[in-house]
Amino acid sequence: MHDGEDIEHVADIAADETGRSAIPDRRRFAELTGARTAIWIALRKDRALRGALVIYRREVRPFTDKQIALLQNFAAQAVIAMENARLLTETREALEQQTATAEVLQVINSSPGDLMPVFDAILEKAHRLCGAEVGTLAAYDGEHFHALATLGYPEQFAAFVRNPFRPNVYMQRLVDGDRVVHLPDQRTLESQPDGEATRAFFELTDLRTTLFVALRKNIALLGFISAHRHGVRPFSEKEIALLENFAAQAVIAMENARLLTETREALEQQTATAEVLGVINSSPGDLAPVADAILEKAHSLCGVDSGALEIWDGERLRALATRGLPASFEELVRGGYQPGPNDLHWQLLDGARFVHIADQAALDEPMHQKAVELGGFRTFLGVALRKEDTLLGRIVAPGKRSGPSQKKR
Q: Which pTM does this prediction carry?
């Protein structure tokens, strides 16, 4: 890489006559490949350059920030694989470790966005190579842990750790910033794990040596991998380093899944927007098909089964489009109605972007009561349709269970 940089992104190599794309090797690269837009991402271990990930396009089409983040993530994965290859070729155990790492990477590549087989593979390979009989790969939500994968647990305890649980005194050290927590002999510790179920687990399984390794993205704690041994057999530095390496792979898999999900969701939203614009262009002056398309796309992307798109004429609300409403209630909202004094519509009129209530049965308001009576709708979400400061209408999404909204996005 040039001048120690980690990323070089050239939007148009052919147009950059005096910049870095004018470097002879860079120009030769463009001539041989026909590349126009290219990105070089350094592969570094600490600050030492080990290589570069080079991606190019034959047309001028710069990479987006999300695409660059995804490529950086794959570059980090490549560095881990390269480092594994260097460390794990020294002995026969090293060959086994390299094979296990390759198998995990294969699972990651063959299961984009599907984390369960990745976590199962990481846990099985890591614990077999480290000589650990029991372990967990757990996620952290900022308050609780819960197991995403387990190995060797008695079934009753496997079920226990799959449910959210608060960190015990040793897991709390990971929350507080520790990278690794190594307990050579659980029974000689001054502070025993708190919680009856956790204490019973150690008593019934005779697990003596425990290792927790944090899963972190930057400094944020995403979870941990734990490894337990029967009897007192402390983990070596190499075994701890190996488990840390598998922990890094788990973090990469999580980040890949997040980026791929965001990219897929963005594509779905862009596609839906384009389809709505197509309906607008093909139906000039006809609002009904446009309203139907907007409602269908908005609801499908948000995981909503029913609702309406209503316009406001200054006195009354009237549905231009409906979806999934009972016939009797649909007739009411399509015929138009004047919202009563307690209708949530007035909050939109006062400037709110949206209104959400967990149980509209509690509202003393005729139309909200009708929604409960005729449709069984308990929750209510209304989003304003606004032109500058003028309220034109709203999209509503009632739900049949009281409680917080279950929107996907």
A: 0.49
